[in-house]
Specification:
Blueprint (H helix, E strand, L loop, with lengths): L55 E5 L4 H12 L3 E6 L3 H13 L4 E5 L5 H15 L4 E4 L15 H22 L8 E5 L3 H4 L5 H21 L5 E5 L15 H4 L15 H11 L10 E2 L10
Parallel strand pairs: 1-2, 1-4, 2-3, 4-5, 5-6, 6-7
Family: Belongs to the short-chain dehydrogenases/reductases (SDR) family.
Pfam family, one: adh_short_C2
Protein name: NAD(P)-dependent dehydrogenase (Short-subunit alcohol dehydrogenase family)
Length: 298
């Protein structure tokens, strides 16, 4: 059993400052149990209405951040979830415990989605446990802050694309033969796909690819009755931030949005519920933008 950790630091240290958050850094991939303050993944006022009753969803990066919030919301809507994650075992087991304590069903499948064999394992274990797959949430990702494109190494460039783009392709290819008419795929992309980011050029480029992947895959699968949409969050307080951004960026994180603050994971999760459910039955190839009010096109 993994313990449930409290945020590192005193209660006073973990209060949000005027804008942004207390300065903190981690190494990639980042751990939610170390964050100060913790992200808010569960909206306790949210009551499900059976929109995903008895559906089976694979959620990558579901151990923490947006993926954790999506898992919580899906379970409230009646879904069973298979959570794929890299190696953040404490975070993943916290998520699983919370789901099971609420009466939901969840399995954990660790592994590196940069490799096709991991995708095959995720699919096999999900089918062995739940017998079917109805929803795929491609959500894993990495980003690294660099002052210049000249600082982006071949190793970083390759790993970012393998994680953020190749992994989406591999898992979609592994899942697709098992999806039936009415199934849905939701891909996480980012506001950087539309605005760019001077200090995360490779990350922004992968999100451009993920947005295009979403649109192209939607066109490819529309005749099969499988819908494909995306979510492009703006600044959201997740482990990705303290593990990839310098301290001076953390303390102002989210303040540039029109709402003047970063979003919390639970504020993004309902976009995935909408796109995964029949509420969005006339939508495919589209992207939703929970980003604090920034106007983007597409």
């Amino acid at each position: 059993m993994y313990p449930i950790y409290e945020p590192i630091g005193t209660k006073e240290e973990c209060k949000e400052v005027n804008i942004g958050f207390p300065p903190q850094q981690q190494e990639l991939p980042g751990f939610e149990y170390k964050m100060c303050p913790r992200p808010i993944s569960d909206n306790t006022d949210y009551i499900g209405s059976g929109k995903l009753k008895d559906k089976v969803a694979i959620i990558t990066g579901g151990d923490s951040g947006i993926g954790r919030a999506v898992a919580y919301a899906f379970v409230k809507e009646g879904a069973h979830v298979a959570i794929s994650y890299l190696d953040e075992h404490i975070d993943a087991n916290e998520t699983k415990a919370a789901i099971e304590n609420s009466g939901g069903k969840c399995i954990l499948i660790p592994g590196d989605l940069r490799y096709p064999s991991t995708s095959k394992e995720v699919v096999e274990k999900t089918l062995n446990t739940f017998g079917k797959i109805d929803i795929l949430i491609n959500n894993q990702g990495m980003q690294v802050y660099q002052e210049s494109i000249l600082d982006i190494s071949i190793e970083q460039l390759t790993k970012t694309f393998e994680t953020n783009v190749f992994g989406y392709f591999y898992l979609t290819q592994a899942v697709l033969p098992h999806l039936k008419k009415g199934a849905t795929i939701v891909n996480t992309t980012s506001i950087t796909s539309y605005e760019g980011n001077a200090n995360m050029i490779d990350y922004s480029a992968t999100n451009g690819a993920r947005t295009s992947f979403t649109r192209s895959l939607a066109l490819s699968l529309v005749d099969k009755g499988i819908r494909v949409n995306g979510v492009a969050p703006g600044p959201i307080w997740t482990p990705l931030q303290p593990s990839s951004q310098p301290l001076d960026e953390i303390v102002i994180f989210g303040s540039a949005s029109p709402m003047g603050r970063a979003g919390q994971p639970f504020e993004v999760a309902t976009s995935y519920v909408f796109l995964a459910s029949d509420d969005s039955s006339y939508m495919t190839g589209q992207v939703l933008h929970p980003n604090g009010g920034t106007i983007v096109t597409g």
